[in-house]
Structures are given as structure tokens and as C-alpha cells.
Amino acid sequence: MAQQVDILLTTLNARFMHSAFGLRYLLANLEELEARAKVIEFTIQEQTLNIAEQLLKYQAKIIGLSVYIWNIREITDIVTVIKQISPETVIVLGGPEVGHYPDIPDICELADFVISGPGEKSFRELCRQILTQSQPKTKYIDGIATDLAELTLPYHLYNEEDIRNRLIYVEASRGCPFKCEFCLSALDKTATAFPLESFLTEMDALWQRGVRNFKFIDRTFNLKVSTSIRILEFFLERMTDDLYLHFEVVPDNLPDKLKEALKRFPPNSLQFEIGIQTFDSDIQTLISRKQNNDKTRENIRWLREHTGAHLHTDLIFGLPSDTLDNFAESFNQLVALNPHEIQLGILKRLRGAPLNRHNDNFALNYNPQAPYNILSTSTIDFMTMQRVNRFARFWDMIGNSGRFINTLPLILADDAFARFMLVSERLFEISGSTWKIALKRLFELLFVVLTEDLAIDEQSVKDHLKLDYARAGVKGIPDYENLPSLNKPAKAGVANKRQRYHG
């Protein structure tokens, strides 16, 4: 029997390796109520009734749930069940998916209270009121921002299992000064840093406990370069073979002092997430994105040539006024810069995001079901959107996986987007799916597509695929000799560990 608690904080992570950083902040700042509260995490793959059973075992008076675009469906089902079985349980919702009244999902009707914005102070005060039977009459509560220096940092709440099995999220700052309309950070007034020395003290404590993979969630890690360098020097002093740091960086802000610090890190110890989204200056202006494209290209080249950092870059398809040809141009420019990964995202409607002001003018038509992906626009029809969805999936399998580093240049040649689109469409035509294609089968299908549709010399294709096949460590030998022509359609028939495969 689970020990009874008054306050239960929970969410559904996308994967077990993820950790609910926000819930740990709420727990750490409950003050006298912390001893009466507990965090429990699940994943979206688990069964609704099992999760409800686990939650109700604690007999909590209050259950707070963190709601995101990726778990809204599952949490809706769970809250529905809990309210059916235990209607007296007070349900409090928070998170970006429910924090933009009146643009809210149906789950808010089931909840007792909904907190928007920062919750450390507001959730604590609400719990005090509920537990003293003086709860507010207002259902929708605006979160109150707290001076970062006054927050209790939550890093001590990562337990040993977290350190062994989960990503350890950390943040040196909150907010973002930029106003890119597709992002909820556009609602922030500015970026604010945590007191640096106390933050580094917490990082040292984590390092002493054995944490070697730090994922910074700061939206703009290199915004204040002096702070960035201080943090980098802190980790350089503690460098080990297995230390790995993930940062999201502003692509056009890489001054010489920062470059000098980055060059000191050994290969495979840094990962940079670099949001490009588009190289089209007109679209950038339309969506209030400030980005020096020339400086961005220059910096990505420099990072690739002078550091061992793993470069994860992002593009978004479906932005207002975007077209297939225009997106192809951004893709080709980014391929030419040779990052390790190009994440091809399809635009999604985020509640509260300023981009929603363009919905009517550009006929932005979104899926009504989460994750609210764009279905069509005034310049991109539904069929084209589907083609790019498949392109993105096959690109993840072939371009991003790192398993085809020898063969990929053969595919892309002098027109990366057009050639890979041909490969994508032919693979889908033959397999009937972008999923459940065994790796050995993918090698075999690629051989025929490259030789038949791209007219590449058979021996050259075999030589390149052979090198990649050996690196991938796949069992069995591809049967290139007895494959049917892909011009005769056949019947339709994991999370990438990318860093292992990338060169």
C-alpha cells in the first residue's frame, strides 16, 4: 500500500529517460508542504487505468498534473477516470497546453483549478488554501513570477535512479528576449539568469553525485557570453571522458572569446541545438524572427570545422507564406553546411503563440487533435504537406540516424532536396509505410532506388552501402542480387542512438 500524501505531482513523459523538471521545481518550493507531497512520473505508453490506480493509491487530496502538447490526450483520459472514481480529489492543471485562457483544451472543464504561467508560488498558495478549506472561487489562476534568486533549486530531488537512467535537465536562465512567433518564448519579456555561483554550486553537487550528461534547457545559452564562458570553464575543470553537455544556442552570436572556450572541449562532449527554422528573410520578418543568415552560416561552418561538437539543427515546414520550393532552398543551404542532424519539424499550433494571428490571412489549417500539426496553408496543399511529412520521416531514418554517412552524399549529390524527395517517394510507394522497415530491408530498398531511380552505378552503390552496413552492425547480408525491380510495387510490409553512428 502506497504511503498516503496530501499532494501528488505527476505527468506523463514522452519516454522513460525524460524527467519532469518542472514538477521538481514545484515540489522544491512547497516550503512547509514539501513533506506532505510527492512526485510520481509515468510515460505516455502506459495504460490509463493502471496510471489512475497508481495515483489513487496515495489517497491524495490534491493531484497536480503538468500538461503538454505530447501528453494532452492521455492526461485527459486519466483525469476523466479519476473524476469518475474519486470526484472529491482536487485536480490542478498546469503547463503550456492549458495556460492560455480562453484558448484551452476540453480537459480544463474536468479540472478544479488551472494555473497559467510560472507555478512555484501560485501552486504553493493554492495548496495551502485547499488544505485549509479556504480554496479560491476562481478556477483560472494566473501564475506569479518569482525572483529567480528566491527560488529553491530542485537539483537535490534528482534521485539515484534518475542519475542512472534519466536525462538530467538544468537551467542557468529563464525566458527569451526574442519574439519568434511560432514559439511560446515569444511571450517572455526577456531572459533572466539564476545567480551564477549558486547555480554552479548545484552543478558541482550533481557532478559529485555522478551526473555526466547535463541537458541545459535555456532558450538562449550564449546570449550573455561572459556567463556562457564561465559555465563552460566550470565544466572544463571537471572534464571526464563521459561528460556530455547539451546547449541551445543563438546561431548568429559566436564571438571569438566563446570560440576559444569551445575549441578546448574534446570531441563528442558538446551538443548544440541550433534553431534555423528558415533562411528566408521575408518569412523571418513576417514571424518576427531576428537572424543574421550570413553570420549563422559562417558560425555553423566554424563549429563544424573547428570543434568536435555535435550539431543538431532545426527547420520548420509550413510557416506562413512558405512553399515547397522555398523550403527546399533552406534545406539545401543547411545541407551544404554539413551539420550532424537536420531535424525537419512540421509547424504545430501552440496555444497562446503569437503566430496564431496569421491563421486567417494565410489559411493555416491545423489538425484539431494533438499535436495540432499543420495540414495545409494558402501556399501548401494537404498532399504536399503529406509528402514532406514522409520526407521528414525517411530523412530521420537515413539522414539523421548516422547509419548512412558513406551513402548519403551519393544520394544528395548536387540537389539534396529534390534527390531525397525522389528517394522518399519511391520508398513509400514500394513499402507502403514510413514505419516498421527493418534496417536490412532498408539497405536493400535503397540499393534498388539508387540504381534504378537515381541511375547511380551499381558497384558504387554497393561499395558505399557495404561500408555503412558494416558500421551499423546489422546481422545478415543484404540480398542485392535477387531483389525485384522497385518499378513493380511490392506489398507493404527506435529511437536513434545518433551519437554512436555519426562521424
From TrEMBL:
Cofactor dependence: [4Fe-4S] cluster
**GO molecular function: any one?**
metal ion binding
Q: Give a single Pfam family match.
A: Radical_SAM
Q: Which residues form a coiled coil?
A: none
Which InterPro entries does the annotation name? BchE-like, Cobalamin-bd, Cobalamin-bd_sf, DUF4080, Elp3/MiaA/NifB-like_rSAM, rSAM, rSAM_horseshoe, rSAM_sf
Q: Which domain of life is it from?
A: Bacteria
Give every Radical SAM core domain span: 162-392
Record has Iron as a keyword: yes
Keywords of the record, alphabetical order, are:
Iron, Iron-sulfur, Metal-binding, S-adenosyl-L-methionine
Q: Where is the B12-binding domain?
A: 5-137
One cellular-component annotation, GO: cytosol
User: What name has this protein been given in UniProt?
Assistant: Radical SAM superfamily enzyme YgiQ, UPF0313 family
